[in-house]
Design goal:
homodimer, alpha/beta, 7-stranded mixed beta sheet, two-stranded antiparallel ribbon, about 15% strand, DNA-binding
DNA sequence: CTAAATTTGTGCAATAAATTACAAATGCTT
DNA sequence: AAGCATTTGTAATTTATTGCACAAATTTAG
C-alpha cells in the first residue's frame, strides 16, 4: 500500500490544521471547511482522509481529536531519527532556532561547519565538528539523515563525504546547487530560489494575459 | 500558450546547468547528459526544451550558449520586480546574504521587522520599517512582491496588511503557518518542515518495504 | 416516525504529466 | 557517396492525480 507524495504533503497540512483546531477546542469539522481553509477541494480532502480507512462520520464530519490522532499515526516515525546539520550559518541557525524544528521525530546529534569559531564548541547543546569529519562522525554517531545548509560550492563535497557513512539514509538539501547522490539515499530539496523564479515567471504570465488565471491559493 | 509548473521548474534547472557549463567552456550537450546530471529522463528534457521551438540539432545535441540564451529569454522578466522582505531574522538574513539573491530580476526596496534594533536603520543598504507600516510603505514604494520570513504567529497579520496595498501581486512565504490570501494574489510557499516530514515518511516506507523503491534522485 | 438536510466514501470521468517509440536530421567513417 | 551511429522532436500511450456525482449514513425538524 503505497502513498503518493501529494497525498503525504496534504496529510501534513491536515495534521497541522487539526492540531490548531484541537487547541482552539473545536470538536468537529467537515471536509468542506478543511478544504476552504487549505485551498483544497472537499472531494480531495475526503479521498485523502478515507485512504487509510473510514475515519469520518456521514452527515456529521470529522471528529477533530480523532482525526488528529489518526493522521499522527499515519505519519508517525518508527523511532527517533538521528539527524546532523551541515552548515551553521544564518540558514542553519534559523532552522535550529525554529519552534517547528523541535520534534519528537528526530534529534540533532551533530553539527558541521568550517568556521573555527564554531568547530569544537557546542551550539545550542549540540557538538559542532569540522566539515572534514563528516564521514567519520556520521558513522560514529549513527546519523541517518543529513540536513545540508552549506553554500552551493561546498554542497557536493559534503554529500560525497556523507554518503561514505553506511548509516546515511536520507538528505534534505537547502542549496540551489546540483548534487549527485547515489540511488540508495533518499534525496529531497528545498530550493527557495527556484520558488522565487517560478513566482516571478507566473506573475509575468498573468500580466501577459492581462488578468488572473486563478493561481495557487491557500 | 500556457506552461505547466513542473516544466518551469525544470527549465530553471536546465538554465542553471547551462550557465555552469558555459563557464566551464563546454560547447555542446545532449539531452541524455543533461538528464543524467539532473536526474530527469532524456525524453522529458527534450520535450521541455522543444516546447518553445526547435532549439537543438539532430544527431548533435544542444549548443550550450544558444540554449542558455534561449531559456534566459523564456524566463526573462518584463522589468525589475520591486520586492519587500518581511522578517529580518536569521532566515531573512540568510536570504539577503545569499549570492543567488542578487538578481537582475528584482530589487529589494524595503524591509520590515518588529525589532527596535532594526527598525529605522538601513540593513545591507535597504530601509527597515516597522511591520505596522507594511500597507503604507508597500503602496508608497510600489512593491509588487512580498517575501514573508516572519514567525508563524505573525504571518497572517503581515499578509492582511500587505494585501491592503493595491500594488501587491505575489507573495512567497517561508512559514509553515496556514494563511488566507485573496485570489488576485499569486501565492507560493517554501515549507522546510513539510519537506522534512515527507523525507522521514518515505524513509519509514522504504524501511517497511525492507529496501529501496527507487526514490527521488538528482 | 417521516421527510429534509448534511456530509462521508467511492466508482468513474477528466485532466495533467511522464514515458515510449520512432521518423527525420546530422555527422562520422570508410 | 553510402552506410552507420547519434540525437532531436513529437505522436501515441501510459501512468498519476484530481474532480464529479451520487448512494449510504446520520442528524434535525416537524
Amino acid at each position: 500500500m503505497k502513498v503518493a507524495e501529494p497525498t503525504v504533503e496534504r496529510l501534513i497540512q491536515y495534521y497541522r490544521l487539526m492540531s490548531s483546531m484541537k487547541e482552539e477546542g473545536r470538536k468537529v469539522v467537515s471536509s468542506l471547511q478543511i478544504g476552504e481553509i487549505l485551498g483544497i477541494k472537499a472531494s480531495q480532502v475526503r479521498k485523502d482522509l478515507s485512504y487509510f480507512g473510514e475515519i469520518g462520520k456521514r452527515g456529521v464530519g470529522y471528529h477533530v481529536n480523532r482525526l488528529c490522532t489518526h493522521i499522527e499515526n499515519i505519519l508517525a516515525s518508527p523511532r527517533v531519527w538521528r539527524v546532523a546539520l551541515a552548515g551553521v550559518g544564518n540558514l542553519g541557525a534559523a532552522l535550529m532556532g525554529h519552534a517547528a524544528f523541535k520534534s519528537y521525530k528526530f534529534s540533532v546529534e551533530a553539527l558541521f561547519d568550517v568556521d573555527p569559531e564554531k568547530v569544537g564548541r557546542k551550539i545550542m547543546g549540540v557538538d559542532c565538528f569540522h566539515s572534514d569529519e563528516i564521514a567519520r562522525v556520521m558513522e560514529d554517531r549513527n546519523i541517518e539523515v543529513l540536513l545540508l545548509a552549506v553554500p552551493a560550492v561546498a554542497a557536493q563535497s559534503c554529500v560525497d563525504q556523507a554518503v561514505r557513512s553506511p548509516t546515511l539514509k536520507g538528505i534534505l538539501a537547502f542549496t540551489p546547487a546540483t548534487v549527485i547522490v547515489p540511488d540508495r539515499i533518499l534525496f529531497y530539496r528545498v530550493d527557495i530560489f527556484v520558488e522565487l523564479e517560478k513566482l516571478l515567471f507566473f506573475l509575468k504570465e498573468r500580466e501577459k494575459n492581462n488578468f488572473q488565471p486563478a493561481g495557487k491559493l491557500i
